[in-house]
Design a protein that fits this description.
Elements lengths: L1 H11 L3 H16 L5 E8 L2 E11 L8 E2 L6 E2 L3 H16 L9 H4 L13 H6 L17 H10 L14 H15 L3 H13 L21 E2 L4 E2 L7 H5 L10 E2 L1 H12 L12 H6 L7 H7 L17 E2 L16 E5 L3 E6 L4 E7 L11 H13 L4
Antiparallel strand pairs: 1-2, 1-11, 2-3, 4-7, 5-6, 8-9, 9-10, 10-11
């Protein structure tokens, strides 16, 4: 570990003490049984480095334990909201198809019932729509149409724009708005308009069957008498076939750092190699407008006490802020229930991806403190 960490610190231009502390925190949580394994991906001033530890699947029903590698695909859970749904919605706004004020019911008429007629795209993005947080779609024996009917007919839990209720349902609706607008399934839209342009080569909403060794295992599932491996963990997403706006993305740490590069470049698609940077700036290619990137990462919920939400992103000071203590007031990020996170601090040109499968042993394990420790250590390593 020592040699790899020293080389990584030098490669990133970070202080070795902080990089070592981040890796040591991961090793402690693995030893404590919080998660069987983890991948840390760090992007600093355009340079990337990865640290892997533990097992993607420590006890498969068939075969030998599978160690974590740099290319292990993790179930990203709610990172789907910001890595799939958010950029596609922002692109539609850039293209003049939608606005933040577009009523969801204009795009999906069946959604406009039970007080939801005036809910906007912007409110769905910021979780201020008043929609309830969650809904059981998977245990009723419903077909796909019945599940969507249940989502669209759900009553409000609060008056719109008065509370932040972190809602999977809102992003399910946004996913359908994308499909309606682009006339493409969400997985195809993501591949064409986000993953391929950014070089997110492994990222997918449709995992390949029969390649379980490529995926970090999540929770044990009684129906298959095994841990889920390359099968989406979220029950709603699984019931709907895995292609959803709120969950379902599988990706490597490298994929997510490619995505972070675009945000640090304020919507531009940057060159990966430093030698190409001048040419890339001369003929700049963009995934999002600079205006869209700026709007997504500034506060939109200042009128609601105790919250700080951007468009999709969690901002510094929100109750779901996982940035730790040292990241700047301008940082933003998101977490996933399975144990994943992506945090970006533009002040330090820094992005941190931490992928764990903390639900492997059940849902009681928490990596909240681990995220804070890793983020503190790496931010502290800047300009050491």
């Amino acid at each position: 570990m020592e040699t790899h960490v020293k080389a990584g610190a030098e490669q990133l231009g970070l202080g070795i003490k902080g990089v070592k502390a981040a890796c040591a925190a991961i090793e402690r949580e693995i030893a404590a049984g919080t998660t069987p394994g983890a991948v840390l991906g760090v992007l600093h001033e355009g340079r990337t480095w990865f640290y892997t530890a533990g097992y993607a699947n420590p006890n498969p029903v068939q075969g030998q334990p599978v160690p974590v590698s740099e290319d292990t695909l993790y179930d990203c859970a709610s990172l789907t909201k910001v890595a799939v749904t958010l950029p596609l919605i922002l692109q539609l706004i850039d293209d003049g198809v939608l606005t933040l004020g577009t009523k969801a019911s204009d795009m999906l008429p069946s959604f406009g019932t039970a007080g939801k007629e005036e809910i906007t795209v912007g409110q769905l993005l910021t979780h201020t729509s008043g929609l309830q947080a969650d809904m059981n779609l998977h245990s009723h024996g419903w077909d796909r149409e019945q599940m969507w009917d249940a989502v669209f007919s759900a009553p409000l839990a609060a008056k719109p724009n008065t509370e932040v209720i972190y809602s999977d349902l809102g992003y399910l609706v946004l996913g359908r708005i994308i499909e309606r607008s682009l006339e493409l399934p969400l997985d195809q839209a993501f591949k064409r308009w986000v993953a391929d342009p950014l070089g997110m080569h492994h990222a997918t909403l449709t995992p390949s069957p029969g390649q379980a060794h490529r995926y970090a295992a999540t929770e044990h599932e009684e129906s298959i008498q095994d841990h889920l491996c390359g099968i989406v963990h979220d029950e709603k997403a699984r019931a709907l076939g895995g292609v959803c706006g709120h969950a379902g993305l599988f990706a490597t740490a490298g994929d997510l750092l490619q995505y972070a590069r675009m945000w640090l470049a304020q919507g531009a698609i940057p060159a990966v190699e430093a030698a190409e940077a001048a040419e890339a700036r001369a003929g700049e290619s963009r995934l999002l407008s600079r205006a869209a990137a700026a709007a997504a990462t500034r506060p939109h919920t200042s009128h609601i006490q105790g919250t700080s939400r951007g468009l999709g992103w969690v901002l510094k000071g929100d109750k779901m802020d996982a940035s730790g203590d040292w990241m700047s007031p301008h940082c933003y990020g998101h977490t996933g229930f399975t144990g994943t996170s992506l945090w970006i601090d533009p002040e330090s040109d820094l992005a941190v991806v931490l992928l764990t499968n903390r639900v492997y042993g059940g849902r009681s394990s928490s990596v909240a403190q681990l995220r804070a420790q890793v983020h503190n250590a790496l931010k502290g390593a800047v300009a050491w």
